[in-house]
Specification:
single chain; Rossmann fold; two-stranded antiparallel ribbon; 37% helix; disordered N terminus; methyltransferase activity; SAM-dependent_MTases_sf; Diverse_substrate_MTase
Length: 163
């Protein structure tokens, strides 16, 4: 059952299994069972997102907001590639990785220290309206696949943004 928990700066519904089971102590065994992402997968995301080459916009908070980032397996593949491509275009990459588990985010920061992180659930994102270019969720959407979350994603995406 879902239950309410304080996450980040708001109250959100987080599955009780996620609250009790996804901690810093469980991150190592969690990582052992999670797949790695192929270069082909990342290539396709970059190709489809057309993130590189978009004009810089003052009201953009993040180029990428990753939901359910967990320990960062997907982040470890996507972030460096986008960072390099953005560097070639002479613009910094604004990337936010979110997860309800502060313990998992701590593990993510060990492997991706340049990535901004926030303990948050997908239904309660503390970013301005229409301020994110791409929302990504790698093997996590089933934890928060609700109409409420889709409305929240729609709220934060820029017009023509990508999910």
């Amino acid at each position: 059952m879902d239950s309410e928990h304080t996450v980040g700066s708001g109250i959100s519904k987080v599955h009780s299994m996620a609250v009790s089971g996804f901690t810093k102590n469980s991150a190592e065994s969690y990582n052992l069972g999670r797949p790695y992402y192929t270069d082909q997968t990342i290539d396709e995301i970059i190709k489809r997102s057309q993130l590189i080459g978009l004009e810089s916009t003052a009201n953009i908070s993040y180029d990428v907001l990753e939901l359910g980032a967990g320990t960062g397996k997907f982040t470890q593949k996507l972030y460096p590639r986008l960072k390099q491509l953005n560097k070639e275009g002479n613009k910094p990459l604004k990337y936010l990785a979110t997860d309800p588990s502060e313990g998992f985010l701590s593990t993510l920061q060990e492997t991706c220290p340049d990535v901004e992180t926030a303990a948050a659930s997908a239904n309660c994102l503390k970013v301005p309206d229409h301020s994110v270019r791409l929302v990504a969720a790698a093997q996590s959407f089933h934890w928060f696949a609700t109409e409420e979350v889709l409305q929240e994603i729609h709220r934060i995406l820029v017009p023509d943004g990508m999910l």
